[in-house]
Write a structure and sequence with these properties.
two-stranded antiparallel ribbon; 12 strands; TIM Barrel; 18% strand; 282 residues; globular; alpha/beta
């Protein structure tokens, strides 16, 4: 898969792309509430961040309206739509960038696609009722993430016989479902789900052999930005984890990840540019 068609835009996957995170939520673990004032979404503030991320080199923007941090509360459909769809539409009108929607809700997928979204990023791997059908009808590429349990329960003593083998088996099962629904292989990316139903040790078990996932034959998507795995190892607060995030992003890119989802766009772009320059040097 050299080219990923994302609605009106496309991405060349010869090299990794940086996806900037925009949380239109009041309770996300790192930047929740950043764009809310009196309970309402501040579109201008969110668009200012988007523009700065695009200027810094982000080729994708991920818009989410429901926090999936451990213990997060669920969000009603109308509220999620109000948070996500107007922002997707505004970004599409102002910026030349692929817009991803971080959602598990079929209706949010459909309404976002109608106003310019080009990618669906679902932490629940299209397992909600109607999600596979909704995603298929948009004809957009999708990212399937592995999560053990749900956001409310996922970090309550996750257990695996072999985390690598079980994540791979999960992907094989979900890809078969999507293929049956008409979502073809060239539209699927996979995310091992760092921070979603894994202990710190299990997360590093996934990151260490990351290249082995390439044998599945699908491009990989990685979200490790500011994760607690770095806090536990480095003893850093959530806003002091850039070094860990950048290190893991580079490891993932070297192992074949095609999309890297981050808070710190400019710094991640710099790291990947330097790696690319070294890789291409004669």
């Amino acid at each position: 898969m050299a080219e990923l068609e994302c609605g009106m835009r496309s991405l060349n996957l010869s090299w990794p792309h940086v996806m900037g995170i925009v949380n239109a939520t009041p309770d996300s673990f790192s930047d929740g509430g950043r764009f809310h004032s009196g309970g309402a979404l501040n579109l201008d503030a969110a668009l200012t961040l988007v523009e700065s991320m695009v200027s810094a080199g982000a080729t994708m923007i991920d818009v989410g309206g429901e926090s999936t941090r451990p213990g997060a509360k669920s969000v009603g459909l109308d509220e999620e739509i109000d948070r996500v769809v107007p922002l997707v539409e505004a970004i599409n009108q102002r910026c030349d960038v692929v817009i991803s929607v971080d959602t598990s809700s079929p209706q949010v997928m459909l309404e976002s696609a109608a106003v310019g979204a080009g990618f669906i990023n679902d932490v629940r791997a299209l397992q909600r009722d109607g999600a596979v059908e909704a995603a298929a009808s948009t004809r957009l590429p999708v990212c399937l993430m592995h999560m053990q349990g749900s956001p409310k329960t996922m970090q309550s003593q996750p257990e695996y016989h072999s985390v690598v083998d079980e994540v791979k088996a999960f992907f094989s099962t979900r890809m078969a479902v999507l293929n049956t629904a008409g979502i073809t292989s060239e539209k699927i990316l996979l995310d091992p789900g760092f921070g979603f139903g894994k202990t710190v040790h299990q997360e590093f078990q996934l990151l260490k052999p990351f290249a082995k996932f390439g044998a599945i034959g699908f491009p990989f998507f990685v979200g490790v930005s500011r994760k607690s795995m770095f806090g536990d190892i480095l003893g850093r607060d959530v806003n002091e984890r850039m070094a860990g995030s950048l290190s893991a992003a580079l490891i993932a890119a070297q192992s074949g990840a095609k999309i890297i989802r981050v808070h710190d766009v400019a710094e991640t772009v710099d790291v990947l540019k330097l790696w690319q320059a070294v890789t291409l040097a004669n």
